[in-house]
Structure prediction request, 461 residues.
Amino acid sequence: MSDRRTFLQTTAGAAAALALPRWTRAAAANAADLDPIVSEIDKRHDESLKLLQTWIHQPSIAAENRGMSEGYDVKQVDPSEWSSPPWDAALVDKPGLGKVVIGRGAVNQKGPEATFLAALHAIRGAGRKLPVNLVFVAEGEEEIGSPHFHQVVHRPEVLAAVKKCSGIFMPSSSQGLDGEVTITLGAKGVVELELISSGEKWGRGPRKDVHSSNKARLDSPAWHLVEALATLVAPDGNDPAIEGFAAKARPVSPAEKKMIAEAANRLSEANAKKLLGVDHWVHDVSWQEALELLVSRPTVNIEGLVGGYTGPGGKTILPGRAVAKIDMRLVPDMTAAEALATLKAHLAKKGFADIEVKMSGGYDPTSTPADAEMIRVSNAVYRRHGIDPVLLPRNAGSWPGYVFTGDPLRLPAGHFGLGHGSGAHAPDEYYVIESANPKVQGLDGATRSYVEFLYELVATA
Prediction:
């Protein structure tokens, strides 16, 4: 069809392209009656839940030596930190929320993805044709920085399909504890890497673990790493101190400042702190300042430190090697390549050229205009549900949409979906199945929202 437009739906682990045919009066009349699809959603509730639980049973953890994978990747877990085994996908009652499924990947990203797929099954089960055509693009390395995902746009058959697209859509459980929704106009970029200090590379200290009594006469690769880390940020550990790291960071515009101020007036600071389990923001800033920092500040974060003996009790050794796992978040006009280069230059200038920098993955930020079609469609569906969405310049997290929003495609990108979940990357990650709060949608309500989204895309085309 020469008049067909395409819309791309993508996730941290998988994507689908949607081609929008010309909307006819007959098709519009058919779409207006969604009751058969809603009935199909209700009928398939148990089946949809079972499919999500089966998916969570599959860990799908990405490894750095993997290529592209068909499944979604998730973060590693320590089962001892969970109230319910992370791969059991148990259905439990959570006070104030209702019935939730607990498991790694429940909200990031298998819950929303399974819910979107449930919407497609319901449309087909009701005897309807999908209002859009779908092309799925999958990758399983998002949680290690998507080191190979950029290759997707260089495959001729994929590029040919994606060139027809009008935007990027990522399914999401977008509702907060009170049912509120925040629409973000992009996301930060990220670089994930390891900093490795070793006696072998340094030429000082032991090349292997030795008895700690030798500290009296030997240098320590572990302390060497600590000293290097201390140069990356201000003394309080908050502001990046890597020379040139944030030099190109785009300042917050007046329009974005206004957007953030409006969001601060509408979003609950108490709920945000409750979800995070914290009492203070950095420097004890105000709620509005905290939101501005969240969406606009580049960061340097220590994910983990590994060196020497870490088992129970003590072991008197002087480690020959120590590793810091680092992530750096990037804002518009910064790039992953330049961030990595400035880090390496900084370490060399500070006298730590021996410390190995091993980047496992990363990608650039994304930005989307507020008047993009998918943002308007998302807004329309939310408002039909009585929700006035909060608008923010970007998501503080990251996803590899840069392959679509950047060259050569330059497509807008956004998230959509009702429903609620929390605990991504943390113990007891959950996704609401049956909501105790009428303002928050459970599995079936979230599924219906995707059906409405697909038909709204065509209705407003």
Observations:
- The first strand starts at residue 5 and ends at 10.
- Residues 250-297 form one domain.
